């Protein structure tokens, strides 16, 4: 009769257990990394972005109120009387951009170096303000206000070093042109 050797505790664990542990560990690690990179882009917004609003006092007050309602705490607004003063503030880097309502149609003026997030936010705000005016929510001071909701964006202070694509000036919002 053959005697069978008893099983000892020295037998190595199954390789499938090691594979399962590696899969679980990698899945958890990748989930944490994806969450860490995706979370800021989902939760980001503008906070205290310095901008100027140029135009008559009544229009400036109306735009300032609309901005505070649309993005509370998003902008630090400096009120100026005319376009030249707004452009001067942009060139001096005191504000990132300006919304000019002196002609009755919101126009965005911005520094190229302010960044794409600020540019997109200002363009969307100006477009919304222009559409609100075109629908009669605001005073119309220009006959062209009904034909176009907003005017093209212009750059007041170019980026430094100079923009390698100067033919892209003036910048224009896709909804405006």
Written description of the protein model:
The protein is of the alpha/beta class. It has 4 helices and 5 strands. Helix 2 links the parallel strand 1 and strand 2. The termini are far apart.
Structural class: alpha/beta
In angstroms, what is the radius of gyration? Answer: 28 Å
Shape: rod-shaped
| Number of DSSP-assigned strands | 5
Short summary:
This protein is of the alpha/beta class. 40% of the residues lie in helices and 14% in strands.
Which descriptors would you attach to this protein?
single chain; 14% strand; disordered C terminus; 177 residues; 40% helix; alpha/beta; 4 helices; 5 strands
Layout: helices, strands, pairs:
Blueprint: H1 15-43, E1 49-54, H2 57-70, E2 75-80, H3 83-91, E3 97-100, E4 107-111, H4 116-134, E5 154-157
Parallel strand pairs: 1-2, 1-3, 4-5
Antiparallel strand pairs: 3-4
């Amino acid at each position: 009769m053959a005697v069978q050797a008893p099983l000892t505790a020295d037998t190595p664990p199954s390789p499938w257990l090691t594979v399962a542990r590696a899969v679980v560990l990698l899945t958890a690690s990748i989930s944490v990394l994806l969450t860490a990179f995706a979370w800021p882009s989902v939760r980001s917004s503008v906070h205290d972005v310095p901008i100027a609003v140029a135009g008559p006092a009544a229009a400036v007050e109306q735009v300032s109120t609309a901005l505070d309602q649309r993005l509370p705490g998003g902008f630090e607004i400096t009120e100026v009387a005319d376009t030249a003063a707004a452009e001067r503030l942009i060139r001096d880097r005191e504000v990132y951009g300006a919304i000019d309502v002196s002609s009755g149609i919101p126009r965005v003026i911005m520094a190229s170096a302010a960044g794409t997030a600020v540019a997109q936010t200002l363009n969307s705000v100006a477009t919304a303000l222009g559409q609100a005016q075109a629908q009669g929510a605001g005073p119309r001071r220009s006959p062209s206000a009904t034909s176009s909701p907003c005017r093209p964006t212009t750059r007041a202070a170019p980026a430094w070093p100079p923009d390698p694509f100067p033919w892209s000036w003036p910048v224009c919002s896709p909804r405006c042109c």
